[in-house]
Design goal:
Elements (H helix, E strand, L loop, with lengths): L7 H8 L4 E3 L2 E3 L6 E5 L6 E6 L3 H16 L2 H4 L2 H17 L1 H12 L3 H22 L6 E3 L11 E9 L2 E5 L5 H14 L3 E6 L5 H13 L6 E5 L2 H9 L6 E5 L2 H12 L4 E5 L5 E4 L5 H13 L11 E5 L3 H13 L19 H16 L3 E4 L14 E4 L6 H4 L6 E7 L6 H5 L7 E5 L3 H10 L4 E4 L18 E2 L12 E9 L2
Parallel strand pairs: 7-8, 7-10, 8-9, 10-11, 12-13, 12-17, 13-16, 15-16, 17-18
Antiparallel strand pairs: 1-2, 3-4, 5-6, 6-20, 11-19, 14-15
Helix pairs in contact: 2-9, 4-6, 4-8, 5-6, 5-8, 6-7, 11-12
The structure holds 1,4-dihydronicotinamide adenine dinucleotide and magnesium ion (MG).
Length: 499
């Protein structure tokens, strides 16, 4: 893989020391340590970033606590807060090209995709959430107070920010995950310590600069780059953090719950998936075939909601699999910064090894690769689009989240009536797709699937106004939409005796 041309402005920005954002200032790690960040398309080092650890988390939590209790943020009106949050969205759009380049270089995804999806949706999340700042409302309740006969009361419920929030995000959508987490926390008036993924810290650090430029007061947003077992664990278990919001693996989600349980912190989790994508026999295949292709191969399969288990009616199974393989053959693999590239490398050597081990296990268990099937090897962490058939529900590749461009496809027969049971036969419940022309049938199936997002004749449709999150082991709580506000609000009931 040839090395892409990195824009000069990005080179200049990368060459400056990459520090931690604590209390409104960019500072080195207390330990003085830094870690290397790689271009996953080449394996080359592109930046050295301050390595935050427990001591830095401590400082950041102190700053966030101060900002929450007594800083200008604590006194700011919802209207002022909303305007600042809106400005963050504006600044993201103004720097869209630059942020997309950073994302392509750091994460490996194509720059055009980063610009159209990650950057656009990140800005929209701040814009959307900024409107809620002035619309968070409480209640007036006429209570009966049966145990206090003869007395009269006036009761209201006042929503309040939960406090200092620890947020931990992954590497698959580095900027967008930062936006999903930061925007609602700021909207509700919380203060934040954000721990970004060690694989991809760069776009969130640039976002931190824009957040300061937008006028967010010191200490309200603190950004720590560092590793999960050190910085992440310190944040999840910190006694002065009121709430932890996590996106990542189900395995680490469990560790977060354990760490948070000591102080019974509030926790929200957005975890893994193994989402079914169902193509019914009357589906419009001119939509369903490209749709199912994108459902799995978008972002190289590194989506928690990837449509990774395909169920196709047996009468069209061969046609659909062949069609997806043809679409997959058109996907141009290369460096995310090169024009015309549709698919970049996986994010790291670790993920490359993980995904190629899944491919080996599939082969060993008897699955057959219609296309792809092996990592490309050589420089960079490239795995081609892969479709596995001849699978059975017991195989590891069918049961576990692969988080790479690997689709398992199986036919179903109406006569057996096992489709819904098989589609729901997973520990996860994040998303599902259904393709078909009979509106009644697709709705009936949607109602029976245990998943937080269902897409009918479409896939990967995200919007800041729509709640997103999981049933079962895919998580707790919802991101985005009005629903996300609940993650960051306490409800205080205030009762006054009036007679
Ligand atoms: P991970 O869950 O280990 O990492 C996600 C975040 O958690 C990172 O910021 C990491 O530093 C942090 N973290 C790790 N260990 C921690 C700990 N003990 N305490 C606190 N924070 C910790 O995910 P990883 O290792 O990058 O990927 C492994 C697998 O997880 C993937 O193959 C995929 O299946 C799944 N995954 C799911 C994601 C999703 O969006 N639901 C995102 C990333 C990974
Ligand atoms: Mg991990």
């Amino acid at each position: 893989m040839r090395t892409a041309v990195v824009p000069q402005a990005i080179r200049d920005w990368l060459s400056k020391p990459k520090a931690l954002l604590i209390d409104g200032k960019w500072v080195a790690a207390q330990s003085g340590k830094t870690f290397e960040v790689h271009d996953p398309a080449t394996g080359e080092v592109i930046a050295h970033v301050a390595e935050g650890d427990k001591a830095d988390i401590d400082l950041a939590v102190k700053a966030a606590r101060r900002a929450f209790e007594s800083g200008p943020w604590a006194r700011m009106t919802p209207s002022e807060r909303g305007r600042i949050i809106h400005r963050i969205g504006d600044l993201i759009l103004q720097h869209a090209d630059e942020l997309a380049s950073i994302e392509a270089l750091d994460n490996g995804k194509p720059k055009a995709v980063a610009k159209a999806a990650d950057v656009t949706l990140a800005a929209d999340m701040f814009h959307y959430m900024s409107g809620w700042a002035t619309k968070i409302e409480g209640k007036y309740i006429n209570i009966s107070a049966l145990a206090a006969p003869g007395m009269q009361f006036a009761s209201m419920v006042r929503p309040e920010p939960v406090g200092v929030v620890g947020q931990i995000i992954p590497w698959n959508f580095p900027l967008l995950m930062a936006a999903w987490k930061l925007a609602p926390a700021l909207t509700t008036g919380c203060t934040v310590v954000l721990k970004v993924a060690e694989e991809t810290p760069l776009s969130a650090l640039r976002l931190g600069e824009l957040i300061l430029e937008a006028g967010v007061p010191a200490g309200v947003v603190n950004i720590i780059a560092g590793f999960g077992e050190t910085a992440g664990a310190a944040l999840a278990g910190h006694p002065d953090v009121d709430k932890v919001a996590f996106t990542g693996s189900t395995e680490v989600g469990r560790l977060i719950v354990q760490a948070a349980s000591r102080d019974l912190k509030k926790v929200s989790l957005e975890l893994g998936g193994k989402s079914p994508n169902i193509i019914l026999k009357d589906a419009d295949l001119s939509q369903a075939i490209p749709g199912a292709t994108a459902a799995i191969f978008f972002n190289h399969g590194q989506c928690c909601n990837a449509g990774s288990r395909l169920f196709v009616h047996k009468s069209i199974f061969e046609e659909v699999v062949e069609g997806i393989a043809k679409e997959a053959a058109k996907i141009k693999i290369g460096h995310g910064l090169d024009d015309g590239v549709d698919m970049g490398p996986l994010v790291s050597q670790v993920q490359y090894d993980r995904v190629t081990e899944f491919l080996a296990s599939g082969e060993q268990e008897g699955a057959r690769a219609v296309c792809g099937g092996k990592g490309l090897g050589g420089k960079g962490y490239f795995v081609p689009p892969t479709i596995l058939v001849d699978t059975n529900p017991g195989m590891k590749v069918v049961r576990e989240e692969i988080f790479g461009p690997v689709l398992v496809a199986a036919p179903f027969d109406d006569a057996d009536d096992t489709l819904i049971a098989e589609a729901n036969n997973t520990i996860y419940g994040l998303a599902a797709g259904i393709w078909g022309k009979d509106g009644g049938e697709t709705q009936r199936i949607a109602n029976r699937l245990k998943a937080g997002s269902i897409w009918i004749n479409c896939y990967h449709v995200f919007d800041a106004a729509l709640p997103f999150g999981g049933y079962k082991q895919s998580g707790w709580g919802r991101e985005m939409g009005q629903a996300v506000l609940a993650n960051y609000l306490e409800q205080k009931a205030i009762t006054t005796r009036i007679g």
